[in-house]
Design a protein that fits this description.
By secondary structure, the protein is an alpha/beta fold. It has 7 helices and 9 strands. α1 crosses α7 (169-181).
Length: 184
Amino acid sequence: MSRLVVLAGPTAVGKGTVVRALRVSRPDIWVSVSATTRSPRPGEVDGEHYFFVSDDEFDRMVAAGELLEWASVHGDRRYGTPRGPVEERLAQGTPCLLEIDLQGARQVKASMPDALFVFLAPPSWEELVRRLVGRGTETEAERERRLATARDELAAVEEFDETVVNDDLDRAVAAVAHLVEHAR
């Protein structure tokens, strides 16, 4: 049986970028697909990018204990990690990775304390701010909210087993891949 690896870190640290690059360089590492109640964006494929479910189905999944973790995001959208596919891959010995937020990582830690928890950190606060502003996808108020949240998230680094600094994409991807491979 493999050991689950949970990757978390503050907003704009590059979790998605690292995981996308990891999927290309290490297709043998399985990355979980989250369920969400939001509608698909153009180009998103059900079961590949997310499992798109109704509010009623999400409620059923929560009540049945089918999610390792879940959260409400922006008030009306919910996201969660389906437990079944994770447990199946782990039982098969497949290296498994969850890319989630700090709240989700804490929930997984409560239900799967033997997982390896990896914190993806920015090289500096200034670089994190630069990345967030550089995305250009948030309003000023949203950026300020995300930066306030990021300060709290950065303070949680001690809750994690390992820290990978995302100062160079290739180096960060290699470090995460190494941790997943050796987490068995």
